[in-house]
Fold Protein kinase domain-containing protein.
Amino acid sequence: MESANGLYSVQEFNLDTKWLIDPKVLFVGPKIGEGAHAKVYEGKYENQNVAIKIVHKGDTPEEIAKREGRFAREVAMLSRVQHKNLVKFIGACREPAMVIVTELLLGGTLRKYLLNIRPRCLDMHVAIGFALDIARAMECLHSHGIIHRDLKPENLLLTADHKTVKLADFGLAREESLTEMMTAETGDIPLDGSRALQHNHIEAWREEAL
């Protein structure tokens, strides 16, 4: 259950047993990323290579409550939505630490990829493919009433062949009603034929380019 302020309480949140991982068989390897509230490691779980996100508990009661709520919310959303352009959720546990396990994407972040190809520009075909992957991921989330709220190159991961982009890190995501999603601070977002036409145009452009 989500509270009025948009945060899950760990006491209220119950993880479905099919998503509950056994930390005893979770092997944590080298660190591959770090944020303000969590570290990400490469590892293994039941003979598959995985990414392991370990969430810092915080130092004060306020920090602990906030991070526990964020963890519960992220797990709830990851377990509810699956899509080829969203990082695949494998499972989670709360003890002995707050851990989220997902598929391991060896292509790195989109930010790192773009920096590595400098001074060359991103090929047009590739750029269109990446843009469509991101749009599909966001469309999937929005269709489930989820706002990611942290879309940036650091949270976009590439497959090993650098052909597919997947959206990761749901730590700041929120569930919103359809009315809330369609009404932003800047005003209403029109739902008319123009958006569909733009979408069709992009798809046609991609087919033409390929």
Summary: The chain is about 35% helix and 25% strand. The domain at 110-209 is CATH 1.10.510.10 (Transferase(Phosphotransferase); domain 1).
